[in-house]
Specification:
With about 70 residues, this protein is of the alpha+beta class. It has one domain. The strands form two sheets. It has a two-stranded parallel sheet with strand order 1-2. The chain has a two-stranded antiparallel sheet with strand order 3-4. The longest helix has 8 residues. It is globular, with a radius of gyration of 12 Å.
């Protein structure tokens, strides 16, 4: 599942494109969701969602744990 939000690389600060980040923590869907949508859908169901991506600029692997509370 792709993440619609554009997020910055925490290592080099470069803005990543829409749908660059993805997750496998939710049902196997080919949809794209915003982080806000994920929070609404998962509240009370799971504790966190891991999203990840390799930066287009610096090529470092980015893993972000989104707490759902």
């Amino acid at each position: 599942m792709g993440i619609k939000d554009k997020l910055y690389c925490p290592f080099c600060g470069e803005l990543q494109e829409e749908n660059d980040f993805q997750t496998k923590c939710m049902a196997c869907m080919l949809d794209s969701w915003t982080i806000e949508d994920i929070h609404k859908c998962c509240l009370g169901v799971i504790n966190n969602v891991e999203i990840y991506h390799e930066c287009r600029n610096c090529k470092k692997w980015i893993e972000i744990n989104l707490p759902i509370n």
